[in-house]
Amino acid sequence: MCGIIGLLIKPESKRSRLGEWVTPMMDCMGDRGPDSAGLAVFSPVGDGPLRRFSLFCGQPGFDWTELGKAFERDTASEGNLSAIENHGRLVSPIAPESLEEWLSREFPSVHLLSTGRSIEVYKDQGHPAEIAERYGFAGLAASHCVGHTRMATESAVSPAHAHPFTAGEDFCLVHNGSLSNPWSLRRRLEKRGVDFETDNDTEAACRFLEWRMREGESLEDALKAAFIELDGFYTLLMATAGKLVLVRDAFACKPAVVAETEDYVAVSSEFRSLAHLPGIRSAELFEPVPEEIYSWSL
Description:
With 298 residues, the protein is of the alpha+beta class. The chain folds into two domains: 3-36 and 137-297, Glutamine Phosphoribosylpyrophosphate, subunit 1, domain 1, CATH 3.60.20; 46-117, Alpha-Beta Plaits (2-Layer Sandwich), CATH 3.30.70. 26% of the residues lie in helices and 31% in strands. It is built from seven helices and 16 strands. The protein has helices at 18-28, 64-75, 96-106, 128-134, 182-191, 201-214, 219-229; strands spanning 3-9, 36-42, 51-56, 80-84, 87-92, 111-116, 119-125, 144-150, 165-166, 171-179, 232-240, 243-248, 257-260, 264-268, 284-286, 294-297. Helix 5 runs parallel beside helix 6 (201-214) and helix 6 crosses helix 7 (219-229). It starts with a strand and ends with a strand.
């Protein structure tokens, strides 16, 4: 089942409304995925060496203040840490591999959800409407986002198995469908030094695409290879710091609809989650065709 959503807001003057517009989309898609949900939001990339690190800890009463103090004490790096519930947001110039090593040693219960200069990821277990309220999605301001509501058909129901999945920096992916060859992909990637964190089939697709991009391909070229390499049914919605990208498999049996106006591009598994958007009556509406790459840039 599962539901996917995406929103890219074109004019800078209206990006403060992203959370207001996307929250009802996620709530509506809760009918397709009540187990867990997640949202990746992207803001314009800033200058300088600072990165944003999204952190998650499911431990009740976790002391984020103590983590912030320990971070500055142990790493000799400056860091600005803020937290909401189970989610922490660290802004720091520290190298991602150094942060991962420190977290695994000092705070093994804290999971690094995303890394980049533009991306921030929230995901948790529970109904999407509850998660949106818990983390204040309605107040988010950003240029674009992708989200997912999950009804698990394979692997565990947990925050780690929730979408979006990320790999590398400023890249994420959400998936509706199922892959039949994730383990063969995984074995090939592991031989090339790619590490995995879950047994979820979507992670294999995410890491395959990011690996191809690290080897020098564009996301679009990596997706052309994915059409050959990925076996199964899928609608994939991806985001980088500068764009949204959507594809469906050769059979296109997993639903998707796109609405585009002068103000936004909106993607969902079902039109009903788009019906509240301003200007939807005059939007260009279409169903993406099989194995076509749809890309929208800021």
